[in-house]
Amino acid sequence: MSIPTQKPSFGTLDDVRVVYAAVELAVPKACCFMADWGADVTWIENTAAGDTIRDTAWIKQAERRNQRSIALDYFSPEGTEVLLKMIENADVFIEASKGGTFAKRGISDEVLWARNPKLVIVHVSGFGQTGVPEMVTRAAYDLTVMAYSGYMSQNGTPEQPVNPGPYAGDYINSLMILSSTLAALHRVGVTGKGESVDVAMYETLLSIGQYYLVDYLNAGIIWPRPGARNQNLCAIGEYRCADGFIGLCVYGVPQNKYLLEVIGLGELWGTPDYPEDTSGLWLSSPKAELIEAKLEEYLSTRNVDDVEKDFAAHRIAAQKVMEFPDLVAEEHLERRGVWQNWQTADGEEFKGLGVFPVFQRNPGRTWRPMPGHGYDTVDVLRRAGYTDEQIAQFVESGVVLPPSATGTE
After folding, report:
1. Interior angle at CA 16, CA 400 and CA 194, nearest 5
2. Which of 62, 92, 110, 253 is a Cys-bridge partner for 352, taking CB atoms 3.0 to 4.6 Å apart?
3. Other C-beta atoms within 10 Å of 332: how many?
């Protein structure tokens, strides 16, 4: 099955051209957002096995839609020239590698700007482009930057830290890559001068995890890992009901009053320990253990749906912990248009997510499935100004791979 090569006009980023060289999750997910919002995105894969995402069964289809694929040896002399030719008409170039890798291979910011002075360049690495040399060049994955940033140490039980999944470190960084890219694009639009962004993945996680970090920086406080509950407050966390789990966030004066009443501790309300303006049921309060025990007992005999409905009616934030079958059956998701089906490059039906968020006047869309490894090589090179004879020479020398026919591998 052939897939379209001419991007239709749509979306808030319709006039933005993005080129990226990265594998797996953080950078490609950021570029997937931009592609869904209308950007023209070219995905540079290596000339060996390509992006490691191709080893997965399903997520590759969801996060590589709307993109072009070129298989290019961009660190070879000829390949570097091809890359520089490609970015002449691009607005954004994003790369993910150990700090300083591209500069060491002769592709510095200055070299890129010599070809395109307005280019936004985004470098993504585990530990940044500057600092202690051994850290700058250290290999990094989602789990290891989570460990280094201190984010992991705040999750899990007192006995065992736990890495939040799936790949939360990568996906949180996707949003930092996306937002910093768009911020730089805005500034280029104002000044006409390019920008270079140094995204150190651990720093993004430091920023996300600073809620309790500043308690330590300013008062020396280290809160214990909470497991399924909040570090400081009663009735906040994940609780077991008779038929499943519910997420509770009980906070506010009327909410606390109702909770104490419904679990059989209404007599505590209005006492010196819990005056009538109590907005938070602190774990440091005298009856915290009793409140938690009575809440657990109350919930253990009731169905999730009943608790959710009752608590929501009393303005308590309470939601069933949804499993995948629950999500698929949920009417609200259906009405919001969360699910979308499209055909893969081999003609198979694929079910995934639609385009988020919803832009009212310039909606995003899915215009092509994930392409095969290097499927768009010829088209991309022609767009960059190369002749068919030059492209054939690149194929013969191994600078590029001949295009794949489908996106099934």
Report:
1. 90
2. 62
3. 7
| pLDDT value for 163 | 95
Establish whether 310 is a catalytic residue. Answer: no
pLDDT tens, 88-106? 999 999 999 999 999 999 9
227 pLDDT more than 60: yes
Per-residue confidence (pLDDT) for residue 113, from 0 to 100: 98
Q: Are 71 and 373 in contact (CB under 8 A)?
A: yes
CA 238 to chain centre: 23
Alpha-carbon gap, residue 353 to 338, rounded angstroms: 6
Task: Provide Rg for the chain, Cα atoms.
Answer: 26
Query: Which residue matches tokens 């869904």?
Result: 36
Among the listed residues 169, 251, 233, the one whose alpha carbon sits nearest the alpha carbon of residue 203: 169
Other CB atoms closer than 10 Å to residue 398's CB: what's the count? 12
Q: pTM for the whole thing? A: 0.95
Catalytic one among 142, 170, 305, 310?
170
Q: Name the token pair of 146.
A: 């989570």
Question: Which is nearest to 191 in space by CA: 266, 118, 286?
Answer: 118
DSSP symbol at 206: H
Half-sphere exposure of 27 (CA within 13 A, CB side): 30
If one counts every other C-beta atom within 10 angstroms of the C-beta of residue 33, the result is 24
Q: Is 379 exposed, middle or buried (0-12, 13-18, 19+ CB in 10 A)?
A: middle
Sheet harboring 244-249: ordered strands across? Answer: 236-241, 244-249, 317-320
Residue 155 structure tokens: 């999750």
409, pLDDT greater than 50? no
* Alpha carbon distance 295, 389 (integer Å): 74
